[in-house]
Amino acid sequence: MLMHKAINIRTSLPPNKMAISISVPPDKGGKGGYIPYNQTLTKKAQENRKNPTSAEKKLWVSVLQDKQLADLKFTRQKPLDQYIVDFYCAERMLVIEIDGDTHTDQMDYDSQRTARLEDLGVKVIRYTNNDVLQNIEGVCSDLLEKLNAYGSPLTRGVRGVISPPTKVINPLNPPYQGESEA
């Protein structure tokens, strides 16, 4: 029989609202464990997955889907705590956010959101739509560099390109066979 532990989440709801109780599967979560979330966000997250922005779709298909990036599993539109994040890697406790034009109007909200996620042990990396759409190679290189800095060194780049743990090669332009990586 599978046992779950119960977690109560109390948000900044008025006293007349009830707290959320969540059953936590013991095998869920990354190295830091399970991050509870508001289950009312699930439907909205599913809708967001069906309607990605062009930048989200490009990063997902080109870099994150099917463990293309350093053999790490990412999920899209993942509810964490009281938010839905664009991409989440449980193994590295890492969120990748793609900020569109609307994010310039909500910088305070984004700062609070980032602070809350970091309080939960989640590292947040942000890129703009423009970065992803016009410089995906630069985004990949930056992401690999940050992944190396935030955790144990990676031994794989994008699409299985092997690189030494301290060296980041351009993941979308690997050397030709027989050509030196130096």
Characterization of the model:
- With 182 residues, this protein is of the alpha+beta class.
- It has a domain at 35-150: Endonuclease, Chain A (3-Layer(aba) Sandwich), CATH 3.40.960.10.
- The chain contains five helices and six strands; from the N terminus they run ββααβββαβαα.
- It has helices at residues 42-50, 54-64, 107-119, 129-134, 136-150; strands at 5-9, 20-24, 75-80, 83-89, 94-99, 123-128.
- Strands 3-4-5-6 form a four-stranded mixed beta sheet, with helices on both faces. Strands 1-2 form a two-stranded antiparallel ribbon.
- The longest helix has 15 residues, at 136-150.
- The chain starts with a strand and ends in a 32-residue tail after the last helix.
- The relative contact order is 0.13.
